[in-house]
Amino acid sequence: MADHNEIDTHPAWEDALGFGLGVTIVLTPYMTGDGVSQTVQLTTTFLGLIILIAAFAERLQVIDGVQEPAREWEEVLQSILGAAMIALPFLFGYAGSGTLRYWHFGLGAAVLLLAMVELRRDYVGDLQRHGWRQHK
Predict the structure, then answer these.
(1) What is the rounded radius of gyration, in angstroms, for the C-alpha atoms of the chain?
(2) Across 22-31, 40-49, 57-66, 96-105, least confident range
(3) Are 34 and 94 in contact (CB under 8 A)?
């Protein structure tokens, strides 16, 4: 079973927010009605599903108490995917028009910010577990 302290140091809201962001990213090309290409729809769906799966995998690790030496792979993947969401309008040429660009900029920034918050929490938690930084 998972160590109670491990679950406390990784709040469930972070993973729930990751789920929500992933689902919202999947739905954005269909909600906006901007008439984007099928390639943009498929790419957005793929990125959103991977973000969703990464958040789900992290929640499973916390619940199961898996102690990997480098369990930050989810956050690294989410930060890469968040940056990809921000770059998507430029790569596919819809950065100059339509509401989908704003959705992708905002959602990409939210995924990237969430990943940075989680990485920071993991880093500080690792320092504290190894005695490098004590609570005052």
Answers:
(1) 17
(2) 57-66
(3) yes
